[in-house]
Amino acid sequence: MKVMLVTALFLAAGACGPAFANAKLAEEKQCMQCHAVDRYVIGPSFEAIKAVYQPMKAPEKKLIDVMRMGSDANLGPHWGAARMPNGSERPLINDEEARQLARWILSLP
Q: How far apart are CA 38 and CA 48, in angstroms?
């Protein structure tokens, strides 16, 4: 019984691994200072971002551009008066990190 429980926990942790890793990346890149997965903070929730961007043509590329250039990307809706900072105002996000974050946002339930 104990072995089955440990195995189940191990498998569950593995299934959550990518989601946890991307949430950790979002924290490291200071995304969570303005965003949360399921609620508005200073900026929209990642769920709201997904709802707006997912129906667009090439949503991943558009999200990557906004993550890299901030509001200066001028590629889509920006909520309220808050401005998405560009790379000079927050930690830089390289192409692979931006791609991971965009895919994570677009895959949220």
A: 8
Half-sphere CA count of 25, side-chain side, radius 13 A: 20
Which tokens belong to 72? 């200066």
Predicted TM-score of the model (pTM): 0.78
Q: Taking Cα atoms as reference points, which of 99, 36, 103, 22 lies closest to residue 68? A: 99
Query: CB of 53 within 8 A of CB of 63?
Result: yes
Question: Residues 31-41, buried b or exposed e (16+ Cβ, 10 A)?
Answer: beebbbbeeee
- Encode pLDDT of 74-86 as tens digits: 765 577 777 888 8
